């Protein structure tokens, strides 16, 4: 199986700062980490490879510093990493991001399965996975808790939804997104760390992936962030209740009454 | 390959709602979307259309809740959720009827379907909107959504593309009060053979029997953390949830301890919820948990330790042992 795992570098904390001019997140101000959901995507890719053979490639679009998460991926058992980095990629929304990633996947060639995280914790959109599938016109399955390979060209997936889950048979090539429950990620081995230091990480630009320049970056993005602001602060000061359990329960009911909830 | 066409904006008209239909039953989020669509359509002086894809759909005529036109495809092939098929059907209907705005629920299904549609139509899509408005000058949809776990509210436009697509968080918008006098037009459509290219197959569907109400549909969530100490603690939470018609949530610590399935986890690596009431029992309130629930209307915390971040941010903070307070609370409710 040839597997591509899409990973994203995100700010380590949710204390995001906004550039007043561009309205975009300032990414240099805070430390960056691998998007937590992508850790499960990487682990799933490596496990499938260990079971069925083949190759796992980690792919990211981001600034040059995003190389760090590709090395992290290699330390976790991925064979190689590819960095998509160019000024023209900057400002891409999920339409343009999934376009760029899909072009890179075409360029890699003969890919059977693309694994993404459920969502990135900075934007929280969960759009890039299905977006890649749409650009490639491949099948997709989202919020997976389990992936089983049933034959050469098929996987059986367990899709999580609000009322439970379903089992869904997907024909490869396909794009899937995974949730946290799907596996327990390993910690990197010493051997993995050494491999990650030695690995050459190619940097691809629009020319390398034969991308249409008008569909990249801010220009290619149908959405524009026009305003960012902090949410209204929580209105009321905290009402503190303590004392006997009975008193606490009665006082809580009283408080709910005051708010016309009971 | 998908390329952008220059569009004539004035050709695009009306506000669409993509209904959420589960085994023939229209889900509540659909009515909320209709309420929001009605407000937008009144400002825009246009119609509300609701698109229903499913099988054996019960009562698809949603006029009483604000729809002017109901477009229905009732077909056995739509009984289970097949992303590719629904996306292809919608893309074809969008090209045919050219709506100006499309709203879809930010549910697991909507969040899988609508990004696919947005790519196929080369349209802007804003995820998880909590506020929608119209710019009267140009008809732009002003889409406001939380990002960075609710620490920022971003407003997004998609000025050069039509339709403008937004997924909307469940439980945020208000449904219209039922108006039985409203009437509308029913349009029956069918699946085109070309829609069926590249489909997968749903083999079996399982429903979570442990919790009657899921987190996304709940008005009240009773959540437990490490302070619930085990399955017995969650049983207590479940009792209270049942009493008040709520759902049970959990911190990651409780999920990782195996006291409750992952589907109940709230927070950065779980679900984001926005309920009327959130009762946190024995949850200290680390940032990864807070980002999943800080937008709830009323937050109540019960903890032995009065100094935790959760107790500081809560609207009502009760210092005490949840194993003593919750039974009293259930008692009080029983007496009423
Ligand atoms: C990448 C990443 C992602 C994460 N994602 C999430 C996420 O999605 N959701 C999430 O919840 N966490 C998440 N976490 C974990 C988070 O940082 C915390 O570890 C976790 O939320 C702590 O859970 P807790 O509050 O239940 O436990 P604790 O912090 O141990 O708090 C337990 C609380 O219970 C109180 N208590 C004990 N006994 C009683 C009693 N009898 N009655 C009343 N109170 C009592 C204690 O005083 C304490 O305040 C994530 C962490 C990382 C690194
Ligand atoms: N810039 C990117 N580079 C590589 N993968 C990405 C990028 N952005 C998003 N993804 C993938 O898409 C998933 C969902 O991201 P999002 O749609 O931004 O919430 C992530 O978990 C990643 O797997």
How would you sum up this structure, described in words?
Chain A has a single domain, classed as HUPs (Rossmann fold), CATH 3.40.50. In chain A, the strands form two sheets. A nine-stranded mixed beta sheet of chain A has the order 9-8-7-10-6-1-4-5-11, with helices on both faces. Chain A has a two-stranded antiparallel sheet with strand order 2-3. In chain A, helix 2 runs antiparallel to helix 5 and helix 3 crosses helix 4. Chain A contains seven helices and 13 strands. With 262 residues, chain A is an alpha/beta fold. With 336 residues, chain B is an alpha/beta fold. Chain B has two domains: 187 residues, HUPs (Rossmann fold); 121 residues, 3-Layer(aba) Sandwich (Rossmann fold). Chain B is built from eight helices and 18 strands. Chain B has a seven-stranded parallel beta sheet, with helices on both faces. Chain B has a five-stranded parallel beta sheet with strand order 15-14-16-17-18. In chain B, helix 7 links the parallel strand 17 and strand 18. At the A-B interface, helix 3, helix 4, strand 7, strand 8 and strand 9 of A face helix 2, helix 3, strand 7, strand 9 and strand 10 of B. Strand 12 of chain A pairs antiparallel with strand 10 of chain B, so a sheet runs across the interface. Flavin-adenine dinucleotide binds next to helix 5, helix 6, strand 17 and helix 8 of chain B.
């Amino acid at each position: 199986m040839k597997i591509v795992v899409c990973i994203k570098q995100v700010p380590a904390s949710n204390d995001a700062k906004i550039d007043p001019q561009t309205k975009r997140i300032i990414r240099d101000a805070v430390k960056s980490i691998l998007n937590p959901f992508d850790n499960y995507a990487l682990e799933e890719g490596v496990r499938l490879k260990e079971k069925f053979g083949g190759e796992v490639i980690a792919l990211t679009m981001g600034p040059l510093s995003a190389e760090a998460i590709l090395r992290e991926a290699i330390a976790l058992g991925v064979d190689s990493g590819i960095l998509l980095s160019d000024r023209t990629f900057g400002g891409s929304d999920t339409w343009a991001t999934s376009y760029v990633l899909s072009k890179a996947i075409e360029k890699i060639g003969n890919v059977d399965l693309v694994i993404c995280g459920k969502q990135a914790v900075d934007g929280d959109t969960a759009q890039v996975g299905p977006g890649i599938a749409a650009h490639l016109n491949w099948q997709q399955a989202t919020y997976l808790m389990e992936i089983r390979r049933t034959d050469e060209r098929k996987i059986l997936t367990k899709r999580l939804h609000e009322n439970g889950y379903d089992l869904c048979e997907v024909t490869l090539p396909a794009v899937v997104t995974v949730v946290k429950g799907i596996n327990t990620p390993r910690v990197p081995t010493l051997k993995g760390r050494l491999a990650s230091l030695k690995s050459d990480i190619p940097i691809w630009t629009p020319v390398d992936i034969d991308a249409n320049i008008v569909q990249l970056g801010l220009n290619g993005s149908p959405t524009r962030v026009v305003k960012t602001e902090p949410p209204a602060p929580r209105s009321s000061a905290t009402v503190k209740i303590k004392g006997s359990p009975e008193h606490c329960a009665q006082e809580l009911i009283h408080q709910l009454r005051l708010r016309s909830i009971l | 390959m998908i390329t952008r066409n220059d569009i004539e904006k004035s050709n695009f008209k009306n506000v669409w709602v993509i209904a959420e239909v589960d085994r023939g039953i229209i889900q509540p989020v659909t009515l909320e979307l209709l309420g929001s669509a009605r407000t937008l359509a009144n400002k825009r002086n246009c119609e509300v259309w609701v698109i229903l894809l499913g099988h054996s759909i019960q009562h698809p005529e949603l006029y009483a809740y604000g729809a002017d036109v109901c477009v229905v495809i009732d077909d056995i092939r739509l009984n289970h959720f097949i992303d590719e098929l629904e996306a292809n059907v919608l893309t074809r209907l969008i090209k045919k009827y050219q709506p100006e705005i499309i709203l879809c629920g930010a549910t697991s299904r909507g969040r899988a379907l609508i990004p696919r549609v947005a790519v196929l139509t080369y349209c802007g899509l804003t995820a998880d909107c909590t506020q929608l408005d119209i710019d009267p000058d140009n008809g732009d949809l002003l889409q406001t959504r939380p990002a960075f776990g609710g620490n920022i509210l971003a407003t997004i436009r998609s000025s050069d593309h039509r339709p403008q697509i937004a997924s909307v968080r469940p439980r945020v918008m208000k449904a219209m009060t039922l108006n039985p006098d409203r009437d509308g037009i029913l349009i029956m459509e069918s699946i085109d053979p070309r829609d069926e290219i590249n489909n997968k197959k749903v083999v079996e569907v399982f429903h979570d029997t442990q919790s009657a109400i899921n987190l996304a549909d709940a008005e009240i969530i009773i959540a437990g953390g490490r302070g619930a100490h085990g399955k017995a603690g969650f049983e207590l939470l479940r009792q209270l949830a049942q009493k008040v018609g709520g759902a049970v949530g959990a911190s990651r610590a409780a999920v990782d301890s195996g006291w409750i399935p992952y589907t109940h986890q709230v927070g950065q690596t779980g679900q984001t919820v926005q309920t009327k009431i959130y009762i946190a029992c024995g949850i200290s309130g680390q940032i990864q948990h807070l980002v999943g629930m800080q937008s709830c209307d009323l937050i109540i915390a019960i903890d032995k330790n009065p100094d935790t971040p959760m107790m500081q941010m809560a609207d009502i903070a009760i210092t005490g042992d949840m194993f003593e307070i919750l039974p009293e609370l259930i008692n009080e409710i029983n007496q009423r």
